[in-house]
Amino acid sequence: MQIKRAIEVWEKGMDGALVGHWPVADTISPVRLLQLFAAEQQRPDPDMLLSYFLTADKLAALQPYVAQQLDAERYDFILTAFGLPSERAEAHNANEEEPFD
How far, in Å, CA of 86 to CA of 45, rounded? Predict the structure, then answer.
């Protein structure tokens, strides 16, 4: 399983609708993310698989890893993670062989 990270983009306010998901570059490491969010964790999340609301300081730290402009005046943002099948798992689906993951 390959872990990907994205930023959920929401219209401002409690009734705001989901605008979309903006990808986060794979070059940011879970260690760096943990440094940013460790104080907010109620339980250990060393692989950074949970979702986190992004404040202005977190947006500034993540901006180099997101192609789109993170405009906190216009949107609310949440960092999230999801899994994609590894190449071996995809090969299993295509070839009906036993997976290795």
Answer: 22
With a CB cutoff of 8 Å and minimum separation 6, the contacts of 57 are: none
Contact predicate 99/88, CB 8 Å: yes
Burial of 62 (0-12, 13-18, 19+ CB in 10 A): buried
- Phi, psi dihedral angles at 37 (to 5 degrees): -115, 0
Q: What is the pLDDT along the chain (101 residues), one digit of tens a residue?
A: 889 999 999 999 889 999 999 999 999 999 999 999 999 888 889 899 999 999 999 999 999 999 999 999 999 999 999 998 877 656 655 655 544 43
Contact 80, 3 (CB under 8 A): no
CA distance 97 to 24: 32
Distance (Å, rounded) from C-alpha 97 to C-alpha 22?
34
